[in-house]
Recover the amino acids of this structure.
């Protein structure tokens, strides 16, 4: 027993006298690079002389996590290191979409939730508007969940909507922030708008009594279907563009007017609102049709001034309002007749030979005036 102790003491004395000892650094797997003070000094297995004191070596290999090894002159002379394969470092935060910034150079590494293949520990700072910056160190192959702390005067609220996926925006500035479900830190008095296609927008204002979790139920936009006879077309009111034909279904977010038209019928304006029935039947009134005949038959019928020939008698004409047309035939005196919705269905125009040189005006009440 005394010899063994003496041998150890003797070895210690020998180390102190020589000032160094031989060491070997091995790794699993082998072939890893060995660095000191940022420079490569060899590869494993790595033999070196250790002077009194300590030295720090870094063991590196592609696809493996770096290991720092502190070697002391009093350690065992063979140092073994097992390297861990690089997998994924996972960072979750509440709320999400937090910037992950490398502390050393302010480079943005990504936004949470985040997965990183780290080969060495990284000091980072987590930042998000409305929350206090949160410094931390990410260790390779670890999983983290960090709950951010709101700034003074701010309140953190998790918004959940039905259905989910609604876009959340700051109503004052219009900036899109996130989609539900989402956790947001905001000043009291901030009003948020929730928008989802086919649903009416909803609103919520942060206040002192706001719970940590707010549920927003979105109401579908009312849908109205216009029904009616086949061939009726739908237009925007006031001469708007053609929208479609009946049956026509449209979402009604607020009061809106449409014009429905069909050839041979009076147009009609239809006003819809979110309170309208889901189906609205549209019935158009027919425009009265008048048959203009001439004696003798076959006279030409045109607009006043012969600007546009409408056809030859007998001719059916729409009488949607009071109108004037010319009736004429070679060898006969030109006649101008007036008719309207209340005129008889059959109008007979008797033409006089040219020799009489007479102009006659027939009005709605079947009275006639001769003009000389």
């Amino acid at each position: 027993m005394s010899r063994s102790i003496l041998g150890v003491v003797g070895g210690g004395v020998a180390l102190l006298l020589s000032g160094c000892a031989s060491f070997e650094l091995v790794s699993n797997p082998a072939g890893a690079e060995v660095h000191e003070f940022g420079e490569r000094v060899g590869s494993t297995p790595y033999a070196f002389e250790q002077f009194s004191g300590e030295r720090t070596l870094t063991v590196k290999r592609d696809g493996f996590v770096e290991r720092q090894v502190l070697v002391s002159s009093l350690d065992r002379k063979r140092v073994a290191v097992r390297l861990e394969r690089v997998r994924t470092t996972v960072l979750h935060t509440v709320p999400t979409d937090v910037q992950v910034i490398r502390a050393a150079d302010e480079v943005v590494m990504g936004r949470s939730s985040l997965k990183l293949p780290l080969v060495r520990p990284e000091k980072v700072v987590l930042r998000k508007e409305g929350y206090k910056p949160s410094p931390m160190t990410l260790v390779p192959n670890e999983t983290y969940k960090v709950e951010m702390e709101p700034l003074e005067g701010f309140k953190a609220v998790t918004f959940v909507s039905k259905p989910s996926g609604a876009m959340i925006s700051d109503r004052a500035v219009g900036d899109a922030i996130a989609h539900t479900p989402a956790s947001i830190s905001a000043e009291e008095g901030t009003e948020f708008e929730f928008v989802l296609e086919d649903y009416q927008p909803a609103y919520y204002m942060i206040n002192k009594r706001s719970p940590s979790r707010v549920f927003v139920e979105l109401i579908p936009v009312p849908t109205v279907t216009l029904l009616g006879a086949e061939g009726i077309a739908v237009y925007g009111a006031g001469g708007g563009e053609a929208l479609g034909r009946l049956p026509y279904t449209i979402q009604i977010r607020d009061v809106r007017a449409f014009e429905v038209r069909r050839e041979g019928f009076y147009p009609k304006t239809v006003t819809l609102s979110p309170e309208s029935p889901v189906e609205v039947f549209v019935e158009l009134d027919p425009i009265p049709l008048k048959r203009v005949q001439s004696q003798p038959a076959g006279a030409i019928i045109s607009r006043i001034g012969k600007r546009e020939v409408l056809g030859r008698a007998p001719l059916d004409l729409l009488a949607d309002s009071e109108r004037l047309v010319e009736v004429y035939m070679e060898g006969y005196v030109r006649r101008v007749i007036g008719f309207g919705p209340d005129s008889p269905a059959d109008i007979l125009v008797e033409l006089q030979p040219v020799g009489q040189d007479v102009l006659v005006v027939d009005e709605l009440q079947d009275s006639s005036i001769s003009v000389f």
